[in-house]
Amino acid sequence: MIRRTLVAAALTLAALAGCGTAPRGATPSSAPGATQLTATLASADSVRLTWRGGEPDAAGRVVEFATGAGGQYTILQFVPPRQTTFTHPDLMPATAFHYRIRPYFGPVSNAVEVQLPPGPVDDNAEPSDQPWAAPRKLPRGPVTARSIRGTGAAAAAPTDLVATLMPAGGVRFTWVDHASDEEGYLLELRTPGSADYTVTEVLDPDVTSVGLLTLADQRSATVRVRAFYYGRPSNIATQHT
């Protein structure tokens, strides 16, 4: 099961300042203990990122780039906590690319197993034609909201995650929101044989329903949802193609 559209988000650049010595292609981070990022040219049109350090208990990290030092950052990929490299390929020539890494944290729901029944799947179905797939906040009765930060974060994890089979080989996921201060929700998916979950949807705060369309050759997956917030950003690493 995979999402048919790529997730991209524009995020406002946080101003960073610092001092000290950094590797070539990097500027020092202003936050002690933050991830230390280095950018090097892997080829004429690709940049290789490597990083070290940072919070060891992060649920994962998000790799972001911007083409203006004061512009907006765009998500390239969410990566699992063990990953420490990423290559950004097929870049525009004679352009400056600015990168940063941010960890993310937050409690996660129990996982649900999804298995599509035998039969055809419409590989040409478009998410925009499936109104049930749109992210939304479902009406529910009163729920006690808790912080997802600190020692009691587990009590704010999403609960009652349900997967419902829908037309066009789709699956709709619903859950109960218990968080009071999340920056959003992440729908995380793991296919058979995969060691790690991957982020397949980045959702706004308070969302409790979203749908995915699937492909015929990926009919099963394990899915969970996470209330999340971002940690301290790394230094900004810059390279020119």
Describe the structure in your own words.
The chain is mainly β and 241 residues long. The protein folds into 2 domains: 10-105 and 231-240, Immunoglobulins (Immunoglobulin-like, Sandwich), CATH 2.60.40.10; 112-229, Immunoglobulin-like, CATH 2.60.40. Helix content is 0%, strand content 41%. The protein is built from no helices and 15 strands. The strands form 3 sheets. Strands 1, 4, 5, 7, 8, 11, 12, 14 and 15 form a 9-stranded antiparallel sheet that branches. It has a 3-stranded antiparallel sheet with strand order 2-3-6, with no helix packed on it. The protein starts with 9 loop residues before the first strand and ends with a strand.
Concise summary:
It is built from no helices and 15 strands. With 241 residues, it is mainly beta. The chain has 2 domains: 10-105 and 231-240, Immunoglobulin-like; 112-229, Immunoglobulins (Immunoglobulin-like), CATH 2.60.40.
CATH superfamily of the largest domain: Immunoglobulins
CATH level 1 class label of the largest domain? Mainly Beta
- What does the largest sheet look like? 9 strands, antiparallel
Low-confidence stretches: 1-30
Please state the average pLDDT score.
83
The name of the CATH architecture of the largest domain is: Sandwich
